Amino acid sequence: MNALVQQAAEEQNPLFPEIPELVIGLIAFAIVFFILWKKLLPNINKVLEQRREEIEGGIEQANEAKEEAAEVLKQYKDQLAEARHEAARLREEAREQGAAIIAEMRAEGQRQREDIIAAGHAQIEADRAQAAQTLRQDVGKLATDLAGKLVGESLEDHARQSRTIDRFLGDLEAQADSTGAAR
Fold first, then answer.
1. How many whole angstroms from its chain centre is CA 153?
2. Domain that holds residue 38
3. Residues 2-49: pLDDT tens digits?
4. Which of 39, 47, 162, 179 is the most core-located residue (most Cβ within 10 A)?
5. How big is the chain by its Cα radius of gyration, in Å?
6. Does the pTM of the predicted model rise above 0.90?
7. Is there a domain that residue 104 lies in?
């Protein structure tokens, strides 16, 4: 039995098929390969070509969008730089106008102060002159009355009274000026 099994095993070696099976297998493989090559391979190539075109089109669109975005970004940056420059110019202009207004207001305040001081000096001078005139009249009247009482006669003559008063006040002013100059 052993010899029978061994002989059967030798006849049917699975690694070496029989020639008719090998020929039928090769013919079937050739038919399947031909059908796949004629029908399936063109469809696969067509689908792959469409995908390649879509990918290339997408890449082109992406590049175009990227270039457009870069251009828009450049425009925005230019506009932003221009806006910053304009804002700086406006700030500087406002600063200059503010300084000019401040200088103008100071000059106006100085002029008004000088006008007020001049008006005050003029008023003081007018008040002093009026006070001097009133004092001159009062001192003259008192001096005339006192002189009239001392002399015993009336010094009511107006011209004589004015000369006497002027001479007396002139002497007083001269004494005051000499005292002020000595200091």
1. 91
2. 21-176
3. 666 566 555 666 677 788 888 999 999 999 999 988 988 899 899 999
4. 162
5. 65
6. no
7. yes
